[in-house]
């Protein structure tokens, strides 16, 4: 599926008024900047006037996410195709940067169960190398993309940062290790860090063509093909589905916070609990596919049962409050996938006269 930017993207609504000109002219590096969240963040940074270097090995990303940014401002955006495990490429990427947004990672729990060694190498060792390169380059602050999977299956809801970590998968364990490294670096070296624990980020341009696709693009794709989506387990499991604009805002707020953050961990979510069954119903309704009943499969190893964020700490530390709620964010996202599906159909059918999604 192509990755054309959405026509009605709520991503940047209210962001400039919240951030102001604090990043104008600032040198920043985004690891994984051609990925889903990284691409949205890179767009926001460009529009806020930052001088931007993106490093991505494109193993789990697409240049489509950032090609328009490079075309629009070649003097302001620099792209390096390389791995965060390559010290030479990494050193070049962070050179001249005051801030590093570290998003590069292998982001799938099921894939981590199949490939634990690679997951640890990229997500844990990779974070170590990013922190070392940032320290050596004199970077002021590293903003680390952490994961709510660190909480595991602790039944207490909502999740608060003071809860014990109980990782249930290789992915969760590796991301948690990255948090510990960030705190250690802030304590031992002259560099500031913060870890943002994301809760189920979704939005336009999220990969839908993978066996490990996130639940929303996977559901939308199946409905658009008039096929039943697959729900792993009974569908009663709950998540805090959080629109990507909220993750972008959190990164920018963390970057511009005036006080030292000292490796603080904060939850980044919407604070709303939604079951997977409810989510499927909302997507089906938006697409007019209410007659398609989801199929159920055994629950997947390493998946947690319930998860919703307490975002009070993020509000206190960086002034975070969500700017896009679930319903408008989901509607925008579903409509974007429907538009891409329609464009794909028209391109593959030269005589098509509009190509609907119904």
Can you tag this structure with a few keywords?
seven-stranded parallel sheet, alpha/beta, 40% helix, 358 residues, 13 strands, disordered C terminus, single chain, Rossmann fold
Compile the SSE list and pairings.
Layout: H1 15-19, E1 27-31, H2 36-47, E2 51-56, H3 67-72, E3 77-81, H4 87-94, E4 99-102, H5 109-114, H6 116-136, E5 141-147, H7 170-188, E6 192-198, E7 201-202, H8 215-224, E8 230-232, E9 238-239, E10 242-243, H9 244-256, E11 264-268, E12 274-275, H10 276-287, E13 295-297, H11 312-318, H12 326-348
Parallel strand pairs: 1-2, 1-4, 2-3, 4-5, 5-6, 6-11, 7-10, 8-13
Antiparallel strand pairs: 9-12
Kindly summarize this structure in a few lines.
With 358 residues, the protein is an alpha/beta fold. 40% of the residues lie in helices and 15% in strands.
Structure write-up:
- This protein is of the alpha/beta class and 358 residues long.
- The protein has a domain of 237 residues: NAD(P)-binding Rossmann-like Domain (Rossmann fold, 3-Layer(aba) Sandwich).
- 40% of the residues lie in helices and 15% in strands.
- It is built from twelve helices and 13 strands.
- A seven-stranded parallel sheet has the order 3-2-1-4-5-6-11, with helices on both faces.
- Helix 7 links the parallel strand 5 and strand 6.
